[in-house]
Amino acid sequence: MRRSLRLCNKRKTNVVPLDLQIEILNRLPAKSLVRFMVVSNSWQEIIRSHTFIRSFPFRSLTQSQPLRFLLALHDKDDQTGRLSCSFFSSSSSSLSSSSTSISTTFLSKITFPLRCRASYRSYYVNGLMNMGEIICNPCT
């Protein structure tokens, strides 16, 4: 037991500075960050921090990728009473200040299995859409 304690004390652990950890994590795509939350408690704390999360929209605006927006159209079938939602996207390259039309691309259509009892408001938070009692991820 004493020998193992001495060995542990003799080992020097190299600690990566916090600002360097943040810089490394900032360069990773969001999907990788989700996987890397299990690497260590410090990485999980960094990735879940509000300042780190808020840095993503600003970082994506400065990159050369075109801006995109998501359009969701709700439709209720009068016969079945079921709600469907169609998703469309458009990039900033199709937006023009001189044009009044926008070209969009159809992504998908979701028909919800439950009957719609009342009209629901939809909310968009951190990439997820909430429509009444249903939460969906339009990216998948």
From TrEMBL:
The family database entries (InterPro entries) matched by this protein are listed as: F-box-like_dom_sf (IPR036047), F-box_dom (IPR001810)
Q: Which SMART domains match?
A: FBOX (SM00256)
Which Pfam families does this entry report, sorted A to Z? F-box
What is the annotated signal peptide range for this record?
Answer: none
Q: Which SUPFAM superfamilies does the record match to this protein?
A: F-box domain (SSF81383)
Task: Please report the stretch or stretches of sequence annotated as the F-box domain.
Answer: 10-56
* UniProt-listed Gene3D superfamilies: 1.20.1280.50
Q: What is this protein called?
A: F-box domain-containing protein
Source organism of the structure: Brassica campestris (Field mustard)
